[in-house]
Amino acid sequence: MATITVTAPPQSLQSQEAQELARQRFAPWTAWQRVLFRVALLFTAQLTLPFKGQFYQRLVQIRQLHDIYGVAGSGGGIAYVTPAGESARWGLGSFTNWGIALLIAIALAGIWTWFARNSKRKEYTVAYYWLNFLLRYWVAFNILHYGYLKVYPDQMPYPSISNLHTLIGETAAYRYYWAIIGLSTWYQIVLGCVEVLAGSLLFFRRTAALGALLNLGILYNVAHANFAYDGGVHLLSAEISLLAGLLLVQYIPDIYRLLIKKEDIVPSYYHPVFKVNWQRYTYNGIKYAAWILFIPLYFYSDIHHYLWTNASKEPRAEGLKGTKGYYTVTEFKLNGKELPYSPLDPVRWHDVTFEDYPTITYKVDKPLPIRLENGGPATKDAEKHYELAGFAGGRTYLHYDLDEANQTLTVQDKNADVRSRDPNMVLGAPPAKKSSDDAGADSASSDKNKKGRGGRGGKKQDVVKYVWHYSRPSDSRIILTGSTPDKQEFYAVLDRVQENQAIHVDSPIQGEPLVYSRQFGRRFPVRPKSFDGTTDTPNRDQDKQ
After folding, report:
1. pTM above 0.85, yes or no
2. Predicted confidence (pLDDT) per residue in 113-130, tens digit
3. How many Å separate Cα 428 from the centre of its chain?
4. Phi, psi of 248, rounded to the nearest 5 degrees
5. Bridge-partner residues for 409, per DSSP?
6. Residue 340 phi, psi (nearest 5)
7. In the Cβ-directed half-sphere of 4, how many Cα atoms lie within 13 Å?
8. Cα first-last separation, the chain
9. 22: alpha, beta or left, given left = phi > 0 and alpha = psi -120 to 50?
């Protein structure tokens, strides 16, 4: 029988191999490599370091782990200028500060190179390691936050009834993209899991290359989609993708030799070995604390914040029970005078939707200002604008407070903080005189020069509320009466339409007819008893009574 004897190499040979690896790690860099490192270091510093005072103001206001991302997002990078115009919001103009930062980095790197022309230092191996170390944690933290939002899922909620009844031409491009993901809950969850995996891999040196590759692919797709669909968040996703690409640079030569040239390689990259105990303990403590803080604890804090506070993109409170659906306006009167239906009528309501949360919408044939932001989360239901962001078509979105005992709805326009709801208003121009034939529950404005959260140049408006009375002669009919902002009385009879939407068809079996049996509604309506739709934290004492 043949035997194989394995002997360990002599100690002197092991030392020679270690010395050779060390020599390779600290081999002199070429002149262009040193210049590129200086440019990359100065450029990434301008993109990521907290230069803004707002960062430090919010840092001292942290009350829970979930607040960390808001702090990090408030002060990262330098904004040298504020670009204007369409391209500045959705196009190449939004990268203006990148261009300025790159020019500054090149100029400073040139000065650095001139001063270092006689330096004996011919490599930046240690500095390159620490740059990659910080970039790994920066990229991981940002991608984990958005991964957790999809795991709930909350980043792209299920489309509302009013959204599904908005015409294609009246819908912003990015809302198509988000609706596709929002319609498939498990697809969104899988995307979130992949992003969480990609971020988690960056915390570990041995999996950093795979994590950087995954982040580069995932975030490039996100950046491209937002750039193509005018999503408005292409800048951050492009930045994460760019920095993930920079992390991948050091691995490219070995990947090329292995996959393209089919050579055997022994990867060897510098990492610090500390001989002083306090340095080793500090380094390892930071790593372990980051792993625990940003993977299990941050995920727990995020999901706890989602489940047990009212911060979300969609309203959380219950709406008027049994009213959810799409309604035709069978009869409409203004000051006692009946108005016949016309698809071109700017006054008479065309249709109405009731959500399962406290939102009513009605449509008229009149141009209304469009919210240009993406509709992020808020703590008050009346200020949650995701459901109306990016939609046009003359549809007014109303939040209401319900009083079932008196059968009243106290309504307010959810879009009131985007200037006046004047039909002749043009974004960026002064608001025109208020129209006198507006039959909706639109909010009047007081001319306070406060910046709104909506369209460009919008002014913050006072919120005006109106009390409407409702009655329900049958399960499918609702009668609304009330006053409009211009003091006119309206009367509307609404009849619910029994819809068979293809979006809710059960999976068909070959040879059998389609069955429209799935109920319309959100997949994950998180609505604990203690939510009142207005407070940041619920009153848990009510649950015990």
Report:
1. no
2. 999 999 988 999 999 999
3. 25
4. -80, -15
5. 402, 468
6. -70, 155
7. 1
8. 82
9. alpha
